[in-house]
Amino acid sequence: MVIPNVLSIAGTDPSGGAGIQADLKAFSAHGTYGMSAITAAVAQNTRGVRSFVSLDAAFVYDQIAAVFEDIRVDAVKIGMVANAEIALAIAKALDRYASCPVVLDPVMVAKSGHHLLDESAVAALRDELIPRSTVVTPNLPEARVLLGLERDIDSLEEMRERVAALRALGPQWLLLKGGHLSGETSLDILHGERTLEFAAPRVTTTNTHGTGCTLSASIAALLPQTGGTPDVVRSVQSAKDYLTEALRHADELTVGGGHGPVHHFYAMWNASTQIAASHESVGAAS
Description:
By secondary structure, this protein is α/β, with parallel strands linked by helices. It contains 9 helices and 9 strands. Helices cover 41% and strands 19% of the residues.
C-alpha cells in the first residue's frame, strides 16, 4: 500500500489548533504524509488572532513548486490565502502541477471574529480557486460572502435553497456546513453529482478551535485512499465521523483559556495509554 502525500497550503497557528498545524495533525491521524506551503504567518492563540503577515505571492508559488517538482502529491488542501495575489499564485501553481483532488476551505474570518482574508481577495478566491476545486467547504458566514448576500443563511431550509447557487460557482462538489445554526443536531449538505445531508449530534464543548481546518484537511487526506476515482461522499462521511470524535475528546486536552483545539490524536493517544497501562500491569504481576 502506498502512503498518500498530502499538501496543505495555508496560514500558521503558533498555538497548534488551526491552520497548517491542524492540517498536518489531521493528515497524520489519517495515515498520510503531510507537507505544507505557508501563505501567512499568523499571531494567534485560543483567544483570538492578534495579527498576521502575508508572505510574498511569488514565494508562496515557489514553495508549492518545490514540493511538486520533487514529491508525488496525492491531494491538496487550501486554507487561508490572505490576499488576491496569493490566490492567483496558487491558481497558477495548480494549473501547472496539480492532477490530484483539491479541497478548498474558504477561510475568511477566524472563530474570534478576526478577518483573515482581504476584501480584494474574495473575488480571486471565488473566481480562480473555487472552479479548480474538487470539494469546497464553506460555513454559513463564508457562504453569505461568496454569494454576496446581505445577511447570513439562518435556516436549514435556506441552506437547501442556496447550495445549488454555491456549487454553480464551479467546484465539483460543495459541502455547506450548518454548524452556525442552533439545535441539538448539526447538519451539512453535500451537493455535486447528487445531494446528500449529513447529520451529526452537536457536541457540547467550547474547544472547537480549528474545526473547519480539521474537517477539510481530513477530506483531503481521505480522498486518495478511496480507490482510483476519489469517492467524495465516502471521504466526507468519514471526515465528519472523525471530527465528531475529535470534538468529543477535545476536553481531554488543556490548551489555552479560550476556544481550545479539537483532539486530533484521540484514538492514538488513548490506545497508547491503554498499552502503557497493560505493560505496567504485566510488570507488577511478574
